[in-house]
Amino acid sequence: MPDTTTKKSPATVPESLQAQKDLQLFYLFSTTLLSTMQLNKLLHLILSTLVCEENSLFCRAMLFLYNQKTNTLQGMLGICRKSTDGLQLVGADPANPLSGYWDLDEDAMASQRQSDFCTKVRETRIDLAEGCQIVSHVVDERRLYRIEDVECLKCQECDFISRFGVSSFAAVPLVTRNNLVGIIIVDNPFKHQPITDQQLQVLQLFANQAGMAIENTRLYRDLEEAHAELRDARQRLIHGAHLAAIGEMAASISHELKTPLITIGGFAARLGRMLPENTSQRHCLDTIISESHRLERLLGDILTFSRKPTICYQECDLAEIIRTCLADYAHALEERNIMLKAVIPSGTCVIQGDSSQLKQVCINLIVNAQEAITQDGTLRVVLTTKEERGKICAVASFADSGGGIPEDVLSKIFTPFFTTKRHGTGLGLAIVNRIIQNHDGILRVHNVGDGAEFQVVLPLAVCG
Ligand SMILES: Nc1ncnc2c1ncn2[C@@H]1O[C@H](COP(=O)(O)OP(=O)(O)OP(=O)(O)O)[C@@H](O)[C@H]1O
Ligand SMILES: [Mg+2]
User: In terms of Cα–Cα distance, which of 187, 176, 175, 177 is closest to 142?
Assistant: First the structure.
């Protein structure tokens, strides 16, 4: 077992003076750890203070983070004495030896990360089941180890030892609230000086403090994330309230416009019947009629979308709803030479829902398919059942040969008022999506073959 017992180190400095120096160093280290809440900077500071010339503790320090799942240590940072030039003592008062703290700027940290030594450490992964035994002891027992001479411990074969040319070293665990975060390994390869007891004590104290500081930065980060989430949620609430107000306004305007529009369309149709066909007057009236129908439809969609959804749940037969919709549109599809391939089971497919809203879903999907194909193509409608999220569901698929939906459009198609069509309102799929969600269903879309496929998944009540 490696040696961790305390031995008397050569007394070069009087003990009281050494104790005062250690206290000063430790105080400086504590203030340094409190100076930042950025985890990355903290790690740089911890290792830099362990190896900097002024503190004359160690020549190299490496940090490995522990991954419990894979039982490995992953190299994160390695700093040797020559890459601590950027370490600055800030706010030190000559009259007060316990003042100031160490600091590093972004450039200094970047140059530390780019050093060959750090790259080597970051490329190192120690498998605790098979790798360095000494390091495994540190992890298992969660205590500091000092290894005087690795040759004696028959570690020559170990990849970690040969990789870093380590002869004697110390490894200390970083523990936060009983959880192992990682380990710090320090050594003096260039000076070939043994690690003294006094250095070990300082290392242990540093590691305890570092563990707490790492925990603090993590807690602070969690707090910041929670704060950011709350801020976003508040923004969304405000945005939602604005949208609700706009929706109410849109609904009342649509409502007010709809009645006179129906009157305009109705009178125009009556006038139209009085005029002979193929005259310019009749043509003008036909345009008024078709445009007022279009506006009526648009206002109807806006009303549907902005109203609070009221669902009249009852047992309804999805197979029957689809059959009726397909029958309603059979003529329109035929006119455009769109071949309808429908595979609907002959029995019933009963779900709990609002049949008029579900009809609206099917019609929107059929019309979209028809508009995508325009002329000559295929619309395939299939109704099946399958298990989804632990429930038996009806799956109605509407697949067309209309060329599919471009990638950049796909993410926006459910956004209200998004349309790529000249006369589209962009409310069709937003309404479909809302209806399906209110029915505890799922709406899926993907491009398949030479077109798009929309899948409506609804939990089944009974299927006969
Ligand atoms: N089957 C489909 N094939 C290709 N693109 C589609 C298909 N269905 C929808 N889209 C795309 O999604 C967009 C939004 O569709 P949505 O039904 O919401 O609005 P719209 O059809 O443009 O207008 P309307 O409100 O009159 O239905 C369409 O403009 C179109 O770009
Ligand atoms: Mg549409």
Answer: 175
